[in-house]
Design a protein that fits this description.
- With 424 residues, this protein is α+β, with helices and mostly antiparallel strands.
- The chain folds into two domains: 97 residues, Roll (SH3 type barrels); 289 residues, Alpha-Beta Complex (Fumarylacetoacetate hydrolase, domain 2).
- The chain contains eight helices and 26 strands.
- The strands form seven sheets. Strands 6, 7, 8, 13, 14, 16, 17 and 22 form an eight-stranded mixed sheet that branches. A five-stranded antiparallel sheet has the order 4-3-2-1-5. It has a five-stranded mixed sheet with strand order 9-26-25-20-21, with no helix packed on it.
- A hairpin with a 6-residue loop joins strand 1 and strand 2.
- The radius of gyration is 22 Å and the shape is globular.
């Protein structure tokens, strides 16, 4: 862990998500150059391939430096935490206040340091497989009350297993991507037959996702007490959902077209090591879970989350504030359950948390809950009303930890919604 009192000689704005203690990893592209790994301190992007060019990583025990030049972070992550943590610490050392190593390489400074507005952020990893969990008790209860039975909202299995499903990895996109409203079948309540057309109940889902940094062989499992050894880091995750399509299609096999049109992640992967100072305990689990899921200690993180909606031509409006620590099932339990049947995992796989809702209505992590299935519209200061998302809306998700004056953040997951495309 990088010292919480460390300072950088780089300028860092007040309330920046990226102090020297963070050092997240992402993939950038600049004019005339190929995609490559980078990190960020304050508003300055740091080109890791350029640092490798000038020998800054020569003494870290990394024999093959080619991962510093790849268009995805998968090979870099596969170096293992010993080496990726060494890179984080080396970057922090070079840019710590009082360090003048870059003065020996005046030609390097221009190549290594990039203004944030000059760097295009790309997908940080090539996602092979993607699982979406359903780990918020409050969210699952709200949905159960709306669509099933208010007195028995949770299904019988929910308190015993981290419920999840395998999603579509190809449509996970990076922040800044424009997303078209999906087309599909829906079944109006009073209609005898389904109809086809654009979704009229497009929703966001406030989630986070973790990325695995180690692979396993088919037939092996990851024990719950070793799961964090396999987790590289985390991103914000907007699991966009077409609620009307979902309602018609989800029985009996669950979400399909209603979820696979786009999910939007933040571009910087924040490592577990950067979050170490913000560990906390999750909710008490009753009844007691089976032994392979029993997880003691501070196995989650105090991450403040917010969703804003910006209507076209207007300003952002805060819709909800939640926290990652509200999740009933933690990441270690999710990964242990994912692999307990022998399912093999790979470097770069992504595992979303499911919608993160709290007990207070202001902490509900979806419009489905915030407007209670559209029956309680939200009135915005510009005079517009929302039950679900409109074309032209931008959805902005933010997340950060803060304690004792130290703030570690994730940046943004942002997307703008476009009209549905015509079917050919």
């Amino acid at each position: 862990m990088i010292d919480i009192n460390s300072k950088s000689w780089l300028s860092i704005p007040v309330d920046s998500d990226f102090p020297i203690q963070n050092i997240p990893f992402g993939i950038i592209r600049t004019k005339g150059n190929a995609p490559r790994p980078a990190t960020i301190i304050g508003d300055t992007v740091i080109d890791l391939s350029a640092m490798a060019d000038f020998g800054f990583f020569d003494n870290l025990g990394i024999e093959d430096l080619t991962p510093f030049y790849k268009p995805f972070l998968n090979d870099f992550i596969a170096l293992g935490k010993k080496h990726t943590n060494a890179v984080r610490e080396r970057v922090a050392e070079v840019f710590s206040a009082g360090n003048d190593e870059l003065k020996e390489y005046p030609e390097a400074r221009e190549m290594i340091l990039i203004p944030v507005n000059d760097a295009e952020m790309l997908m940080p990893v090539q996602v092979g497989d993607y699982t979406d969990f359903y780990s918020s008790r409050e969210h699952a209860t709200n949905v159960g009350m709306m669509f099933r039975d208010p007195d028995n909202a949770l299904l019988p299995n929910w308190l015993h297993i981290p419920v999840g499903y395998h999603g579509r990895s190809s449509s996970i996109v990076v922040s800044g991507t424009h997303v078209h409203r999906p087309n599909g079948q829906t079944k109006p309540d009073n209609a005898p037959l389904p109809v086809f057309g654009p979704s009229r109940q497009l929703d966001f889902e406030l989630e986070m996702a973790f990325i695995t940094g180690k692979s396993t062989e088919l037939g092996n499992n990851v024990p719950v007490d070793r799961a964090e050894d396999y987790i590289f880091g985390m991103v914000l995750f907007n699991d966009l959902s077409a609620r009307d399509i979902q309602k018609w299609e989800y029985v009996p096999l669950g979400p399909f077209l209603s979820k696979s049109f786009a999910s939007v992640i933040s571009p910087w992967i924040v490592t577990l090591e950067a979050l170490e100072y913000f560990r906390t305990k999750g909710p008490v689990q009753e009844p007691q879970v089976l032994p392979y899921l029993q997880s003691d200690g501070e196995k989650t993180f105090d991450i403040n989350l917010e969703v804003l909606i910006q209507p076209e031509g207007s300003v952002p409006n805060s819709f909800c504030r939640s926290n990652f620590k509200y999740l009933y099932w933690n990441m270690s339990q999710q990964l242990a359950h994912q692999t307990v049947n022998g399912c093999n995992i790979n470097v770069g796989d992504m595992y979303a948390s499911g919608t993160i809702s709290g007990a207070d209505p202001g902490s509900y992590g979806s419009l489905l809950e915030l407007t209670w299935k559209g029956t309680k519209p939200v009135h915005l200061p510009d005079g517009s009303v929302r039950t679900f998302l409109l074309d032209g809306d931008s959805v902005i998700m933010k997340g950060f930890c803060e304690k004792d004056g130290l703030r570690i953040g994730f940046g943004e997951s942002a997307c703008t919604l476009l009209p549905a495309k015509k079917i050919v």
